[in-house]
Amino acid sequence: MKSIDIAYAFLSGYGASLGLTNLKLNKLVYYAQVESLRRTGALLFNDAIEAWRYGPVEPMVYHAFKQFGRGIVPECPQTSRLDSSVCEIVQYVSDTYGRLSAFDLVNLSHREGGAWSLVYRSDADVPITREVIERSEDIKGFPGFARTLERGIQEAYESIPNALKLLEDS
To answer: Cβ neighbours of residue 88 under 8 Å, at least 6 residues apart?
Structure first.
């Protein structure tokens, strides 16, 4: 399987609801790879993952969608049939990581001990190998919403629950 197959699975199944940019899509494909390793010990795809400035990138996915720039990548039909275990991983990553903004995902991928932080160099696109992922903090699973836009919205809602209602009514 290729990373682009996983990207198409995100786009065809969740593109409309997640507002997928190339940046966000690359992070979700990366976290699908991590989740596959965490659950099964097997790679989801064999394509390269590289440590770029804004986190892990699958060059094949990046180049396929770079024409959309920072904009939303349109939904597209799934071109290959995926087995149920792959679909479950894509759904889990969509449900868990998909609600985060692209830059929350960048920050998450840059966390200390994460695979990106273990190999990143500003002067080269360094591969993020299976071995690097397996010894990184990423393999431990989703770390939660601390320091994300999602958490900030939750805290605002909890501290002033009627604020959103007042804004709706105005």
So the answer is: none
Contacts of 148 (CB under 8 A, 6+ apart): 100, 101, 104, 107, 108
Rounded to two decimals, the pTM is 0.86
Q: Where are the beta strands (DSSP E) in 8-156?
A: 50-52, 55-57, 126-127
* Closest among 19, 34, 30, 98 to 61, alpha carbons compared: 30
Report the distance separating Cα 145 and Cα 154, nearest Å.
Answer: 10
The 10 Å CB-count burial string (b at 16+, else e) for 11-31 is bebbbeebebbbbbbbbbbbb
> 130: Cβ–Cβ under 8 A, 6 or more apart, which residues?
37, 43
**Tens of pLDDT along 113-134?**
999 999 999 999 999 999 999 9
Nearest to 58, CA basis, from 4, 122, 117:
4
